[in-house]
Amino acid sequence: MASFSSSPSFMAIVTLAFLVLFIGSSSAQLSTNFYSNSCPNLFTTVKSAVQSAISKEARMGASLLRLFFHDCFVNGCDGSILLDDTSSFTGEKTAVPNLNSARGFDVVDNIKSAVEKACPGVVSCADLLAIASRDSVVILGGPNWNVKLGRRDAKTTSKSAANNGIPPPTSNLNNLISRFNSLGLSSKDMVALSGSHTIGQARCTSFRARLYNETNIDASLVQTRRGNCPRTAGSGDNNLAPLDLQSPTAFDNNYYKNLVNRRGLLHSDQQLFNGGSADSIVRSYSNSQSSFTSDFAAAMVKMGDISPLTGSNGEIRKNCRKTN
Ligand code: HEM
Ligand SMILES: *[C@@H]1O[C@H](CO)[C@@H](O)[C@H](O)[C@H]1NC(C)=O
Fold first, then answer.
1. What is the pLDDT at residue 324?
2. 192 membership: H or E segment, kind and range
3. Among the four residues 76, 195, 230, 267, which has the most C-beta atoms within 10 Å?
4. 22 sits in which H/E element
5. Ligand 2 center–CA 251 separation, angstroms
6. What is the dihedral of CA 214, 240, 282, 69, to 10 degrees?
7. 247 CA distance to ligand 2 centroid (A)?
8. 270 C-beta closer than 6 A to ligand 1
9. pTM for the complete prediction?
10. Choice among 59, 66, 70, 159 that is catalytic
11. Is 70 a catalytic residue?
C-alpha cells in the first residue's frame, strides 16, 4: 500500500503550503508597525522635523514628496536618490531630472539626525522619505494614510538608472501610462499621483517649449508665464513658476481644474486632459476633491511598494548620503 507521503494528495498539500508561505511573505514584506518596538517615537520625530522645514519654506513639502517619487521610480524605493557620488559610482543627483531641480537633501539629513538620536541604526533612509512625504501632504492640507515600512537602503546606484527611470516633461500620454504600468501602477494611479503637481514649482526649462510652441494652452497663462520665461534657451532657465497657478502650497484638486481649463504648466500635465483616455479621470477629480484625495492616498501606498529591499538585502544607512 502506498504511503500517504508519496501520494498525489500529499504532494498537492505540500505545494499549496509552499505557495501560501511564498505569497504570504511577499505581500507581508512592508508593514505599518515595522518599527513600533524598535523606534516607538519615529512618527512624532519625523513629523516635527518636517513641520519645522515647511514652516521655514512651504515649498519644501513639495520637494520632499518629489524625492520619494524619484527614489521609487529608480530601482524601487531604496533611498538611492540620497546617495552622493563616490569613486565607484556616479549617483542620481546629477541625472537630468534631478540636476538643479531635486532638493530637500539637507532636510532629509535633519530628519535622519533626529531619528538617529532617538533610535540609532534602526530606521532606513528609504522609509524616512516615505514618512516625510506623507507628513508633507498632510501638513499642506492633503489626505492622511498609513505608511508601510521596512524598506532597506541601497548600497549603490547609477546616474543612467535615473535618466532612464523618471519620465521627462516632454512625455506624451502613452509614454506616461506605459512607464507607470511597468512599475505596477495603473493609468488611474498615474493620474492621481500627478495631482502632486497641485504643489511645488517648475523651472522655465521644463515648460518653455509649451509656452512658445503649443496651442492647447490658455492664452492668459501663456502671457503670464512668458513674462518670466524667455523664448531663448539658456536665458532664465532656472526661473520658477508654480505648477498650480492658484494654490501652490495647498494640497487640493485645483491641479485638475487647471487641466480642464488648459492651464497645465508642463506638456506632460496637459497630456492628461487632451482628448485622450485620461480625460474622464481628470474630469472626475476636478469635480471631487474627495475622490482625488482617496485615490491619491491609495496610489501613494502602491508607489511605496515598488521593489523594496528587505530581509538581508541592502542596509540601514547611518548617513543618508553614503553607504556604511
Ligand atoms: C507623471 C509624470 C511626471 C512628470 C513628467 C513630472 C515632471 C516634473 C517636472 C518637470 C517638475 C519640475 C522640475 C523642475 O523644473 O525643476 C516636477 C515637479 C514636481 N513633481 Fe513631478 N512629474 C511627474 C509625476 C510626479 C509624481 C508621481 C509626483 C509625486 C508623487 C510628482 C511630484 C512633483 C512635485 C511635488 C514637484 C514640485 C517640486 C518642488 O517644488 O521642489 N511628480 N515634476
Ligand atoms: C519650437 O519648435 C521649433 C520647431 O520644432 C523648434 O525649432 C524651437 O526650438 C521650438 N521652440 C521652443 C522654445 O522650444
1. 97
2. helix 187-194
3. 195
4. helix 8-27
5. 33
6. 120
7. 30
8. no
9. 0.93
10. 70
11. yes
What does R_g of the chain's alpha carbons equal in angstroms? 22
Q: Which domain holds residue 108?
A: 42-166
Joined together, the cell numbers standing for residue 158 give 547609477
- Does residue 201 line the site of ligand 1, with CB under 6 A? yes
159 and 49 part of one domain = yes
Query: What confidence tens digit (pLDDT) does each residue in 150-187 have?
Result: 999 999 999 999 999 999 999 999 999 999 999 999 99
Task: For residue 256, report the distance from its CA to the centre of ligand 2, in Å.
Answer: 27
Q: Render pLDDT for 107-140 as a digit per residue (tens, 0 to 9).
A: 999 999 999 999 999 999 999 999 999 999 999 9
Ligand closest to 170 (CA) is 1
The residue type at 108: V
CA atoms within 13 A on the CB side of 24: 6
65 CA: nearest ligand 1 atom: 35
Distance CA 310, CA 194 (A): 28
Task: Give a yes or no: residue 323 inside a domain.
Answer: no
